[in-house]
């Protein structure tokens, strides 16, 4: 008598406990994209953000493993300044994914050049005025008391 397994059953049976980074061993809620939705981008590690940009790994290597390898060998500052052809040459990236990285880094540079994401420096009381101007009119009163 033949035993038939569904695709899900075959996938479960191929999970190896000695491969903790294997995509199939991660709970769905622990995947980077799901964590981003649930916790926000600030909660993710650098390799998880890279994994989201990558989307997939390559045969025998999960996207998490590829992302960890890239982040371990290339600091984020280096990745942000790499030309397209250099990014495309990294194992697991290729030309299409390199375009995604370059586009994401360029959007980041443009936002930063416009002051988006840059917190104001407040070192004296007058530095607060421009910050309050963005909020709009805030009602408050000041009472002056004269000491005799």
Description:
The protein is mainly alpha-helical and 148 residues long. The protein has one domain. Helices cover 51% and strands 0% of the residues. It is built from 8 helices and no strands. Helix 3 packs across helix 4. The chain is elongated and about 80 Å long. The chain starts with 6 loop residues before the first helix and ends in a 13-residue tail after the last helix.
Mean model confidence by pLDDT: 79
Order of helices and strands: HHHHHHHH
Number of strands: 0
Q: How many separate structural domains?
A: 1
- Percent helix among the residues? 40-55%
Distance separating the two termini? 103 Å
**Major sheet: size, sense and barrel closure?**
none
Overall body shape: elongated
Radius of gyration: 24 Å
Strand content: under 5%
**Uncertain stretches:** 1-19
* Discrete helix count: 8
Protein structure class: mainly alpha
Topology of this structure?
Layout: H1 7-13, H2 32-39, H3 46-54, H4 63-73, H5 76-81, H6 84-89, H7 94-113, H8 128-135
Helix pairs in contact: 3-4
